[in-house]
Amino acid sequence: MIYQDLFYPAGVAVFGSVKPGKLAAVIINRLKEGNMPNVYAVNPKAQGMENVPGCDSVLKLKGQVQLAVIAAPAAIVKDILEECGQAGIKAAAIITSGFSEAGNVQGEQELLEIASRYGMRFVGPNCAGVVNTHSNLLATLETRPPKGNIAIISQSGAVGGILMSMAKAQKIGISKFVSFGNGLDLNMMEFLEWMKTDDETKVVAIYMEAVKNGRAFMKVLSELTEIKPVVIVKAGHSSAGQRAALSHTGSMAGVDAVFDAALGQCGAVRAESLEDLFDICRGFSALPEIKGERVLIVTNSGGPGVMTTDKSEEVRLSLPEPSQNMKETLGKFLPSFASIKNPVDLTVEGTGEQYRDALANALEEYDAAVALYIGTPYLKSAPIAEGIIQAGKSTGKPIAVSLSVGTDMNESLDRLEQEGIPAFISGERAVKVFAKMAQYYKCKKLGKTFEASSMPTVGTVLPNNLLEPDVKELLQKNNISVPPYSFVHTAEEAAQSGEELGWPVVIKVVSPQIIHKSDVGGVLLGIDSPNKAREAFKTLEKIAEGRDFRGAIMYHMLDLGREVIIGLTNDASFGPVVVFGLGGIYTEVLKDVVFKVAPVDEKTALTMIKSIKSYKLLEGIRGGKSIDMQFLAKTISELSYFPFKYTNIREMDLNPVFAYEDGVIAVDARIVTDNEA
Amino acid sequence: MIYQDLFYPAGVAVFGSVKPGKLAAVIINRLKEGNMPNVYAVNPKAQGMENVPGCDSVLKLKGQVQLAVIAAPAAIVKDILEECGQAGIKAAAIITSGFSEAGNVQGEQELLEIASRYGMRFVGPNCAGVVNTHSNLLATLETRPPKGNIAIISQSGAVGGILMSMAKAQKIGISKFVSFGNGLDLNMMEFLEWMKTDDETKVVAIYMEAVKNGRAFMKVLSELTEIKPVVIVKAGHSSAGQRAALSHTGSMAGVDAVFDAALGQCGAVRAESLEDLFDICRGFSALPEIKGERVLIVTNSGGPGVMTTDKSEEVRLSLPEPSQNMKETLGKFLPSFASIKNPVDLTVEGTGEQYRDALANALEEYDAAVALYIGTPYLKSAPIAEGIIQAGKSTGKPIAVSLSVGTDMNESLDRLEQEGIPAFISGERAVKVFAKMAQYYKCKKLGKTFEASSMPTVGTVLPNNLLEPDVKELLQKNNISVPPYSFVHTAEEAAQSGEELGWPVVIKVVSPQIIHKSDVGGVLLGIDSPNKAREAFKTLEKIAEGRDFRGAIMYHMLDLGREVIIGLTNDASFGPVVVFGLGGIYTEVLKDVVFKVAPVDEKTALTMIKSIKSYKLLEGIRGGKSIDMQFLAKTISELSYFPFKYTNIREMDLNPVFAYEDGVIAVDARIVTDNEA
Predict the structure, then answer these.
(1) Which N-terminal residues, if any, form the signal peptide (chains A, B) (predicted)?
(2) How far A533 CA sits from the closest chain B CA (Å)?
(3) Do A585 and B614 make contact, defined as CB atoms within 8 angstroms?
(4) How far does Cα A119 stand from its chain's mean position?
(5) Residues A517-575: pLDDT tens digits?
(6) Reduced to 3 states, what is the DSSP secondary structure of residue B311?
């Protein structure tokens, strides 16, 4: 199995010059540094290195090598790969650059062709290699990280290098590391897939810049987050520029909002920076599940307690005070000058026992705790650390710490880490981590909101340039309410239809050659009698003269409801995306919209409605009544399924939709199919 | 002079037990560690320490000691202070705790009394002491920081301790440090004042939790930022809870927004966390002025470049591409595979010379640059560092770096720091610093927006419960437009007045006993004839029966304008604050309001208008015309001066104000004076 060969090879062949400073020499040194036993240098002169035999052909190593690490010049990589194939090697890491990233696409395709011929799989080219701390595999140019349970998958070699260097400096335990460079063969998808069954990995950290097939990515990501947390840094959210989301309302939000929605729908956690990425991973790596958002802070000084409180509120954790009972319990063993609120402030006199007892008792009422300890350079922090460790053991709940200043600080931090209590630079960082962890576990409990994993290949194809009556019919057929209407073909029909719909009515021209009806005077409002209806029809007929006139569509004029917009757009990575927002300036000026990768069920649609800033307007303010949320959610959900029933929808908007106390009506709609301009 | 005695004493007396582990002993060790020559231990037994003579009374040291550091038990501090007074000592740092922070207010007042009797000034009690790296003064329990040009003033001893420990660990050069504990005597104000003339300090870092006299604080802060940058972390922005800003529209924003506005008006820079605080201070400390917001990124790898680009956009820096000419210039010496955009990506092959040449040339078109270099563990970064240093020297513009990974990384970072090029953990951090620096220098160039420093002691006192016609008159007198109105006292006057105002009119009851006019039916709309006016007047008379009926106020019904709110509120720290926002849901639901400490001139009022999110609505969307910004700014400014003319205004709102294409009218107003409920 490729995964086995790639991450647990019994022998590794390194291709390329082993002269000092050359890549192959560096990699061999790394492999030896990592204590890999069977390493071979393969190069034309059969030059070896200290303890590493040289060999002029990998064919001579048949059976002894499972992984080829290629750092030879680009021109000869294909020959090496061919020979590896002949030698029965199934896995390779191609470090060598000079392929598609430098315009050499053909050279890259040749590699793919050779590999597929031999059933080989490879990482790269132009990659930073692979690491498995659990099998002594350090087939990379990068720093050797400590052993642990965090896997790193990086789309950028440089960022991978930074992460490995940070891991070493901050003593962050890594299980696997892979940076797949051009990702020509093995890439994000395969590694995510493998992470599902990798028992040495408890949490997966990802740095990525682009998503090729968003839906396939979402599928495997969703499956993986069911099993273990995945934390992602996505760069490039500004560089690609912003683009229109609901086409005709202008640039409302960038594609980054779609990526963000996709991650949320998959239950993955997004980190803002590499520092955040490691902070969050360390939380998941060390701590048990956090079951809610109630957090206790125990501190020995005010300032850091206050800053942690501020940040907790910002990240929406809850910091309730201990119950009256608990306050009494704590009061029994805490000194009178301690402040028993939240934070619990033990003051500068706080002892290890007090930290232990305050945490161990109060945690009964909380989901997690942050212990802050600010010492002075002449006092030992070890007793505090021990107190916290004991509390952690007795409660089994997540505790994070931030300790500052002290002669023995490093020893204390090491002790805490050993006992599964992560230390962060500040209390603020700790609560930020708790918030992300709580988000992951909450999402896992509620179940994923993303289901449909791929686009349908069969479905109905809609005709181009659908006429207004066609669109209305289509909506009705798909359980989206439209205003009562009639499609009339004569002045007499118009007069009669008005009687049925109830005066006053609106009457609009229907012609495939008239798209912007208002611009040509093709929309007549306030028609309130049979005679006016007849006249109106004739006016429209005249307007359409010389064009393909199909008749007129008539509506009873509706009471104004709360105006909302529901749209569908097509994301380059993720395909159909459903967008919701309040109409007019809320969408246009305030950009108060929410995205989800389509389709969404009614439950998810309801969370969309609730997540916009202007939600209160829908709930009703100043004694106004709430609009029909359930009906609105149903309408959003119904629309989100359109691209899965009709395969050629590029964009679609319901705008405006009138939301009432009872019911929701799509007043106007617009569909653009794939072939339309 | 106290400042001299406090920060540059020739001799220091330390009071308290010198037994190992006792505070006085720790402080004496710190002082000796800092190489302070004349240190004396003063305690009843005249116990000294190694190289530090003991003495049983400070009177014996008369003339040899300028600073007393007191770490003796609280009960005897007053006696020590008395003796210091007798010995002619003018400055003291009282480390001892157990005063007001523990409820001992009286003990604290005694200290103040003694000090004032002898013309002494002191820091503390309950403080972490003072440090001056430029005079070998380390009169503190905290870590010894490196010498430099950043002064730290901390309202929290614990946070001071964290900062000192961070300074040591991150090699951040400190000039002065003071943590003033209870701040009974010397506190924020005095230290800010002193910082103005402290030539050893280039930038002032502040940690604070509360502001006592906001206006005095603003005055000295404004003066200080004229001279040097001040960077502030303010904690406690959530804990105090949120409170109503415009009273009747509910809780729109917390006092933190006022603090934020105050800092902005004073030209100070706010940092989000202690890490940010030091990052920003290091920028100011090391770099020359940044003259604009155009930033160049030079990198050797994509990922970190992209993340830095993302962050730049977030912090609103501008990242234009080099001009065509510049691209050609750069193209001459950069390799063909380098990407000459912004970021300039030299790729993994980037050399020190290329960094130097790219930076030195392109910086002509930019205000600052970030150089990113991500190496590998086996490559030296020294040549890159040298290239960047040379570019810095030749351009004289600010350059920051982020270097990662490399055998000689620490040496390179030290070299860069020596040459005034600060290194940050990431490019994101570097651009965040640039953004804050640019904000400071921009604000300094534009001039402060805060002028009036203190509240007037004389001024007109408004009567309580002003009637609507009184309020309208008051507004008119102060150049705020109101709708044409008349105050009528008979039915006949009402009929006649309607003719003059023009039908239709609104007519409202006027009575000091009817506050909520609408609730009792005291507002009649759409009156469109003399007869109806007479009837209306009689109706109002009837409604007011048994109450103090003063007549009726009449308005011609106005066309609707764009609805805005302008308010005045009283902040506990900063006094009168002016608030602006769009009416209705923009203020209530979307909390889209802006605060400034009053008064504001028209220029500042204009920046307020432009800073709300819904500004575009005022500018006009979909072809609508802009409202009269200048008139609106004038109205905001006029209102902001009310508390400086009328001394008993507690709250005042103009709500709604109708803003038109030409002009702005305050339709309704409400004033609450200090004595009203």
Answers:
(1) none
(2) 31
(3) yes
(4) 33
(5) 888 899 999 999 999 999 999 999 999 999 999 999 999 988 888 899 999 988 888 88
(6) helix
A273 contact residues in B (CB cutoff 8 A):
307, 426, 428
How far apart, in whole angstroms, are the C-alpha atoms of residue B111 and residue B109? 5
Question: What residue of A is the nearest CA neighbor of B209?
Answer: A303
Chain length of chain B = 677
CA distance A499 to chain B (A): 34
Contact assignment for A158 to B300 by CB distance below 8 Å: yes
Strands (E) across B25-75 are located at 38-42, 54-55, 67-70
Q: How close is the nearest chain B Cα to the Cα of A220, in Å?
A: 24
Give the pLDDT score at B244. 30
Asked if the Cβ–Cβ distance from B158 to A303 is below 8 Å, we say yes
First CA to last CA across chain B, in angstroms? 49
Top residue of A138, A162, A208 to mutate, by most chain B CBs within 10 Å, is A162
Q: Give the span between the Cα atoms of A236 and A280, in whole angstroms.
A: 21
Q: How far is A487 from chain B (nearest CA, A)?
A: 31
Residue type, B414: D
Diameter of chain B measured on Cα atoms: 103
- What is the Cβ-side half-sphere exposure of residue B474, based on CA atoms within 13 angstroms? 23
Q: Work out whether the CA dihedral B488, B493, B494, B499 comes out positive or negative.
A: negative
Q: What is the ipTM, given to two decimal places?
A: 0.87
CB contact at 8 A, B155 and B126: no
Q: Which two tokens stand for residue A122?
A: 């490879």
Identity of the residue numbered A497? S
Give this prediction's pTM: 0.91
Question: Which chain B residues in 202-221 lie under 8 Å from chain A, judged by CB atoms?
Answer: 207, 209
**Contact at 8 Å (CB) between A224 and A201?**
no
Walk me through the domains of chain A, giving residue ranges and CATH numbers: 2-235 (3.40.50.720), 281-446 (3.40.50.261), 484-556 (3.30.1490.20), 562-673 (3.30.470.20)
Question: In this structure, are strands A344-345 and A339-340 parallel, antiparallel, or unpaired?
Answer: antiparallel
Task: Give mean pLDDT, residues B331-339.
Answer: 89
What tokens does B386 get? 């040298």
